[in-house]
Amino acid sequence: MKSHQQTHNLSTVYSHISKESYCVSGNILSQLIVSGLSLALFLLPRPGWGQAPTYTTGDTVVLGHTRTKLTPLYYGLGTDRLGGARMETLDSGVVLAITGQTWIGQDSTHKFWRVRLSPTLTAYTPTEHVITDTLQRYPSHSLTGNWTVYGDTIRSKTRSKFDYVAVRLPARLPYRSQQQINPSKLIIDVFGATVNTNWITQRATAQEIRNVWFEQISDETVRIYIDLKHNQSWGYSIYYLQNTLMIRLRRPPLKHHLRGMTIAVDAGHGGSNTGARGEQSLRLEKDLTLDVANRLKRLLGRAGAKVHMIRTTDTLISSSDRILAMRQLLPDLLVSIHFNSSANPAVRGVSTYYKYIGFRPLSQSILDAFRRKGVPEFGNVGHFNFFFNSPTDYPNALVEGPFLSNLADETLILDDRFRQQMAKTIRRGIRRFVAKSR
Hints:
Elements: H1 10-14, E1 22-25, E2 28-35, E3 38-43, E4 55-57, E5 62-66, E6 71-74, E7 86-90, E8 95-104, E9 107-118, E10 121-126, E11 130-133, E12 142-143, E13 147-151, E14 162-168, E15 175-180, E16 185-191, E17 193-194, E18 200-202, E19 209-218, E20 221-228, E21 236-241, E22 244-250, E23 262-267, H2 285-302, E24 306-309, H3 319-329, E25 333-340, E26 350-353, H4 360-372, E27 377-381, E28 396-403, H5 407-413, H6 416-436
Parallel strand pairs: 12-17, 13-18, 23-24, 23-25, 25-28, 26-27
Antiparallel strand pairs: 1-2, 2-3, 3-4, 4-8, 5-8, 5-11, 6-7, 8-9, 9-10, 13-14, 14-22, 15-16, 16-20, 19-20, 21-22, 26-28
Helix pairs in contact: 2-6, 4-6
């Protein structure tokens, strides 16, 4: 259902009540909070207001701080079964300029803060991820300090290490990032910032970063450009150390083969999250994904890879717990295995999914391996909003096996030989991706 929003003008309401007062009219309680230059109006809805925001501000904003290391920032309030279109995942303690509260349709249990990133850009974040502070002001036009570009000095024989860009700021400002290809580049926008950087120290220990520069692209938005030496991105992380914005970039593997690599394998669903069900067999997706994941683990292990299984039993593990576990592990790459299903029983085929353009080659390589085996394809799907396509820390791909809702596909899935071949084909696609990555 399309959402409807009403706007309540602060100056109109303010003309009927005095500062630091409470006004009760019907089922509406209006409270004005005045602290320095920060002025906010809280409104509780009365019956008949429809699907309206319940919080608006005037010319000033309310300060918020992100509560978790997985705070989502959405472009808008649109949604589907995978959630809204995500702009960025923010670190904890990031300051936000909050200008309103809203929800979608009539579901007021899932509320969102409206966030002002710049004079021309707005985003939304769930209210439970943010702590508000009416006593502090948002640090707009924060001046950037000096930067340092450097890299790890000790390299393991079996794992790549990292390069870093350290950007000194007066506060933990919000940001967003994007990958670019041909040539490989990382772009980060820092909001609420004004350039005052007069030097960037670049040390010889940085091995993957070619160049770093910046520009003030608009009021309160500083854009950071990071040129990479290799075409294939192996991932990056953005986080804060106190008020220093850290951009950590993974160097490519030392050798282009599976031996010594750390590969995470995710068997989709588990526990009470059963996934799809076969039309004929009633077999559950969660059991079939674990079967293929175990087969893939054995095959990758024989090739010399270190394999980390996200689940090894019929266990329910939340999406946030899976992502946080992978942040600790930092695998070289991750593959999540699922089987597809559709309300249209004629739809069939194998598909692979990615979100970031820099990670597409992994998903494309796996799908190409299935094509060469003559398996019907559903396609390679980009900008997909699956939770394990969201991390930027490592290349990742979602593999959706054939459709449990299609009779011909289900017959394939139920065959042990096909599931073994599926695992072999995924390994082959991973191997070719690693071998071709330069």
